[in-house]
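hi!! sorry for the late reply, been swamped w classes. u asked for the two structures so here they r. pasted raw, havent cleaned anything up. first the sequence of the first protein and right below it the tokens
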Amino acid sequence: MNPPIALFLDFDGTLVEIAPRPDQVRVDPGLAPALERLRTRLGGALAIVTGRPVSVIDDFLAPARFDVAGLHGVERRVDGRLAGGGPADHPELRARVPRLQAMVAGLDAVLIEDKGASVAVHWRLATPDDAERAQAAVTALAAELAGPYRLQLGKAVGEIVPASATKGHAIRAFLEHAPYAGRRAVFLGDDRTDEIAFESVARDGGLGIRVGPGETAAARRLPDPAAVRALLFAWSAGGDIDPDALPEA
């Protein structure tokens, strides 16, 4: 029999539908209350693991406050205590952000999301030519920073992040402490950025659940964020928590 689970949830594309712009995400009003109820059922072992900053997740899920690994693990809040470096800890990256902004300034519908300890370039609404130029710009800058930083490509986005920051590392850090320690990790995610975490979780005896189509290292799959919310709402209402019963990926 498997041990009780520790539940780790990506945000964009998993709990909520991906929006044309990061600030246009719409959150189901029932989501945060359901997550609070589910967290209680799980003895507190529920966390958001995301590329967003912790403060942004708080804004979306207010007034609830959850354990969160933000910026792919650069920030981590457990039981109300926030740890992790801020912008001042990344002078090399900060020095290059203005040049990245200049490199994409003439590209229509290309958006820079400056997160302080990382920086993302979004091209979801751009023309194919501008999208290609935007990806080339962030790739070139990431190459200059190679070593301490790496390029992480997702759905119409490229992000320069600290090399040590991965969702897999973040989940392992949670599992070292109560209430997560001794539990089986279950991670839901939707993007290429989540595949490293699926592999890491599986190596540790946990379970990955891919949201949406695509090749994956996850063992289980749900079709879209609406299906994720339906599952979490059912679990929060007292339904049987059995992620192994979900469809195979």
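now the second protein. again sequence first, tokens right under
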Amino acid sequence: MSTETNEKQQATMRAVSPRAWGAPDVLVPVETARPEPGLTEILVRVHAAGVNPVDWKTRAAGAFGSWGDTPILGYDVSGTVEAVGPGVTLYRPGDEVFGMPRFPEQAGGYAEFVAAPARRFAPKPANVDHIQAAALPLAALTAWQSLIETAGLRAGQRVLIHAAAGGVGHLAVQIAKAHGAHVIGTARADKHDFLKGLGADEVVDYTRVDFTEAVRDVDIVLDGVGGDYGTRSLEVLRPGGHLVTLPDPTGLPDPARAAELGVHTGWTVVEPDRAGMLAIADLVERGKLRAEIDTVLPLEDAAKAHAHGEQGRTRGKIVLRVEPARGH
């Protein structure tokens, strides 16, 4: 290999980028500039990247966020520290990390390398591989921040989780159980055994039963569905209870009705948070939290991953496997 060729490879990386905002097939493999870690940043060689609904919603419409000259989706990453920028003391090259950097701006997880602030990452739990670790950050942080920080979950409370078998839902079930809650989930019948295996105490088949007739006296509702689920969920909450909505805030219930029932409501958006990542890593290491992997595809098949995810039938998470970078 010539010196010129080697220098070019060191300066570039493989990634997947949308040619434009639209259908899954706009995602194509590209060769683009490799990022460099700035002040307080680390450069992570990505081994695996998680795929989340925000990815395909952004790809379809452009959505929010600041995008570079080569737009690169992906917020969930797990990999190895390649280099550290000035001022970084938390990590050294070779350390294994996972995290959700820069949300909602471009993080660039669908690539061989990601550069981001060191404190947007946490040490990867030693008892899981990179595929497992990459499935966790955004979905687990969403569940953690919603249940523990926003709703103030306490042991003994009753928690209703909609879309309980999905990416956020199945992690929320485990987090709630780890904190001593009585957990009720809504899901299709073919996913009931899966959820019970995660610790769910009750499961409601929403295709056959109206959950408002099957569930009562709930302290917290985590709504990952949207639409009229928020309004209907008000009726199953105790006074003083919390409804945490994750999809579009236009689906929030009437504030007057919520006030009449004495129920707290609100829309929650996940934030990068090292303390939350450390708490999640602790649960993983103690065997209290594990991501269910629905599908693993190579980086170049990101379009297939999005098409699969948009069907809305996944159990757990979709993950992209990123092959080792050239020269490593």
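hope this helps!! also noticed smth abt the second:
The domain at 138-267 is CATH 3.40.50.720 (Rossmann fold).
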